[in-house]
Amino acid sequence: MTRAKTAPAKAARVKADILIQSRRWDRLARAKSIIRRALDAAAEGSKTTSAEVTVVLTHDKAIRELNHQFRGFDKATNVLSFPSAAPDGHIGDIVIAYETMAREAKDDAKTLGHHLSHMAVHGFLHLVGHDHENPREANKMEALEKRVLATLGIADPYADTDVVKAKKSSRKSR
């Protein structure tokens, strides 16, 4: 009897501690596995050989407080990244808010899982030095996000956004 050869399991590039601080995340039972897969893809796409991150899955109230405290914006946001200068391999923390992420996914006709993947990739890329403070940086980061998400079988997260918003806007103006 011959055995079929299987490819060895790919070693994770990212060690992630994922903390759930809101029961709302129970609505997406696969959240941790989605995040782990997205982080590994982001590491590979950004040519990061290994990293440790902490991901906090929280709610709008908590992320609003963080956004206000650290960025001066008194509003909830989808994802925040906090880079670390620690020499131990921990590159930082990513915080994702359920309500904002879920609302965006619904508004843009995306699945929660796909949008969560995008937020994890986006947050990770910030931790490894990418940004979108000016158009050149934004285009570079967005292109990398698209490439990484494509490896996960996720369509361009920016492509349909304008189309969906335009349709909603035209419906409202009727």
UniProtKB/TrEMBL annotation:
<dbReference type="GO" id="GO:0006364">
    <property type="term" value="P:rRNA processing"/>
</dbReference>
<keyword id="KW-0690">Ribosome biogenesis</keyword>
<dbReference type="GO" id="GO:0004222">
    <property type="term" value="F:metalloendopeptidase activity"/>
</dbReference>
<feature type="binding site">
    <location>
        <position position="126"/>
    </location>
    <ligand>
        <name>Zn(2+)</name>
    </ligand>
</feature>
<protein>
    <recommendedName>
        <fullName>Endoribonuclease YbeY</fullName>
        <ecNumber>3.1.-.-</ecNumber>
    </recommendedName>
</protein>
<keyword id="KW-0378">Hydrolase</keyword>
<comment type="similarity">
    <text>Belongs to the endoribonuclease YbeY family.</text>
</comment>
<feature type="binding site">
    <location>
        <position position="132"/>
    </location>
    <ligand>
        <name>Zn(2+)</name>
    </ligand>
</feature>
<comment type="function">
    <text>Single strand-specific metallo-endoribonuclease involved in late-stage 70S ribosome quality control and in maturation of the 3' terminus of the 16S rRNA.</text>
</comment>
<dbReference type="InterPro" id="IPR020549">
    <property type="entry name" value="YbeY_CS"/>
</dbReference>
<dbReference type="GO" id="GO:0008270">
    <property type="term" value="F:zinc ion binding"/>
</dbReference>
<dbReference type="InterPro" id="IPR023091">
    <property type="entry name" value="MetalPrtase_cat_dom_sf_prd"/>
</dbReference>
<dbReference type="GO" id="GO:0005737">
    <property type="term" value="C:cytoplasm"/>
</dbReference>
<keyword id="KW-0540">Nuclease</keyword>
<keyword id="KW-0963">Cytoplasm</keyword>
<dbReference type="Pfam" id="PF02130">
    <property type="entry name" value="YbeY"/>
</dbReference>
<keyword id="KW-0255">Endonuclease</keyword>
<keyword id="KW-0698">rRNA processing</keyword>
<keyword id="KW-0862">Zinc</keyword>
<dbReference type="GO" id="GO:0004521">
    <property type="term" value="F:RNA endonuclease activity"/>
</dbReference>
<feature type="binding site">
    <location>
        <position position="122"/>
    </location>
    <ligand>
        <name>Zn(2+)</name>
    </ligand>
</feature>
<dbReference type="InterPro" id="IPR002036">
    <property type="entry name" value="YbeY"/>
</dbReference>
<keyword id="KW-0479">Metal-binding</keyword>
